[in-house]
Write a structure and sequence with these properties.
It is a multi-pass membrane protein. With 335 residues, the chain is mostly helical. The strands form two sheets. A two-stranded antiparallel ribbon has the order 1-4. Helix 5 packs across helix 12, helix 6 packs antiparallel against helix 12 and helix 10 packs across helix 12. Strand 2 and strand 3 form a beta hairpin.
């Protein structure tokens, strides 16, 4: 920032101390480095669950951008997720496009869905009206997956071939884990940088008071579109990973129950917290597995867990981390 830069978004910036910045950086890279040991410690099934955790970390990160950072009650997340999954699956299955291209194309498809979903917000629709409209958008996309049988193969689902990276087939859970871990680390780091930039401050300003933000000369419409598009891209990439992890894409993977799970990840992790998104994705994916041996108890246990966290930690698990160490206190996450 220069001395002549008087933008309100720059004027409120307070640089973190070098020591704290270095600690954050080391902490960020420590987690994926430690995760490299996962395939050596767990069997194939638990590695499969770990792969799903990585998928849902991105789902929660993307959802939290619109819900927590921008403050918009929009529920088009399953539309972003489905668009990414079908785009990746179709490119690989129908056109034999390599995995590394198809996965980013899935992100672009999610970004396109995000752009379409932002149209409702740009029309000044907010709160419950925006929630209903975006819910309808998600259901419309699911209806399309079912009835466009010539392309999506309808309710029976679309088979996705085994992905390969530099000629190496991702035909084991361990191979998929390392590729997914690299993708998640890259996308979460990019999102963290975005939220620390003036763009992230604009999101927060719109969340706090959209009219006051516009009065300061900040183009709120542009930032609303950007938030939806980035959210859609992140969740779209997660959708592509989901297609690779399961080897099949079916419309029922993107129904209202799935949306409730995405919402629970954000709420349990912490609204507006990037670290909370990661925690929420991991915890809500792993929790049902603890009671897999007790049929019928998984849903009950998950419901009790969500109620417990929201009752005693209304700011989510991120608030617990923030109390443990200042390193986990994010600039835009507020107690």
């Amino acid at each position: 920032m220069t001395d002549t830069d008087t933008s309100p978004l720059n004027a409120t910036r307070k640089p973190a101390s070098p020591e704290r910045g270095d600690a954050h950086r080391w902490l960020f890279y420590l987690v994926p480095v430690a995760a490299l040991a996962v395939p050596f410690l767990f069997n194939d099934y638990l590695q499969y669950v770990a792969n799903l955790m990585l998928v849902y970390v991105l789902v929660a990160v993307g959802f939290n951008i619109v819900l927590g950072n921008l403050g918009q009650l929009a529920f088009a997340n399953t539309a972003f997720f489905g668009m990414g999954a079908y785009a990746t699956g179709l490119l690989m299955a129908k056109l034999a496009v390599p995995f590394w291209i198809a996965i980013w194309a899935g992100g672009l498809a999610g970004a396109l869905a995000g752009f379409l979903a932002s149209a409702a917000a740009l029309r000044g629709i907010r709160m419950y009206y925006l929630a209903i409209m975006t819910l309808a958008f998600g259901e419309l996309m699911r209806w399309t997956y079912i009835h466009a049988e010539a392309v999506t193969e309808g309710s029976s689902g679309l088979g996705v071939p085994t992905a390969t990276v530099f000629g190496i087939p991702l035909d084991t859970e361990a191979a998929r884990f390392y590729v997914f871990l690299a993708i998640v680390t890259l996308v979460v780091k990019a999102t963290a940088n975005l939220l620390r930039s003036r763009v992230g401050r604009a999101f927060q300003a719109i969340k706090d008071n959209e009219l006051a933000t516009a009065a300061l000369g900040i183009p709120t419409s542009r930032y609303v579109i950007l938030a939806f598009v980035w959210s859609g891209a992140v969740v779209g990439i997660a959708g592509g990973m989901f297609a690779i992890a399961l080897g099949r894409v079916v419309p029922e993977s993107f129904n209202l129950l799935e949306l409730i799970m995405h919402f629970a990840m954000v709420m349990v992790g912490g609204v507006g917290s990037l670290a909370g998104s990661v925690l929420g994705g991991v915890v809500i994916t792993a929790a049902p597995e603890l009671f897999r041996s007790y049929p019928g108890m998984q849903e009950l246990f998950l419901a009790v867990l969500i109620a417990f966290v929201l009752l005693f930690m209304p700011r989510g698990l991120a608030s617990l981390l923030a109390r443990v160490s200042p390193l986990f206190r994010e600039r835009f996450y507020r107690e």
